[in-house]
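Sequence in, structure out.
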Amino acid sequence: MSNVHRVGLVGEVDRAIRDYLVLTDEGRVAPGWRLVESPVSFRFTSQTLDTWDRDGRVDWLSAELAGVLDERSLSGQRVITAINLLDRAFLTRDPTVRVILYAVAVEVLLSDIANEDGSGKTPALRIAGRVAFLTCIADCASTKAACPYVLGINGERHLWAVAQQFSKIGQWRCSAFLDIARASDMEASFMRPSLFGARNQAVHEGRTSVSDADMRWIRSSSESAVRAFLAWVAETPGRTVSDLDMEMLEGAKRWGTTTPSGAIVDSSPPQDDR
């Protein structure tokens, strides 16, 4: 098996020893080992470094990493933790642990600010709405009318109601949202698991049925969410998830909300059905 590591800071690229047994044709058995994740002879090109210097995300992240841990911004702490989780997920050979780490990376990044004291849990559907706002190519609530998914889905009953209403015009599937989280009884209607659906199986059953192809998608989906938030916060340093929610609501107020009939109406947050 091969094991490839991405770029890491000094002290953050783990070294590991891989033990193995050698079986000879004569029937002898001998132990062996080799060092993995050791430094390699590699230099970045000037072109790569110049590209990074022009990247606002790299500039913002560099500033956060350069500061003392206790002085990092809230979003900086979250982004760095999320990146570390993605890195651990990439390295682990256990698919069940990998699924959990990919989901937690998104969860730690986009959970409610108010719940940081551990007194509550952010619903996966709320996190999915934030991911959809950041990643959906439809630009809902950004340059166009908001769809109900980015405006806020409050519980599985509300999600089913939205899906049933919009299915009449064939536009009920927002993949940017539903690939992250959906109602548990919706899973069978999709070709691949949602990020949090796969996470729930891994956490509650201690196993995963995710295929290799789906695992690659889960990795891509979680990394895309982290990159999107990083790009968003780098535009105006100091912003948090609370500011992201405010931006979504302001976008909905400005552009309106799409209705199942295709019309656009003035927007207001949905009522919680729980």
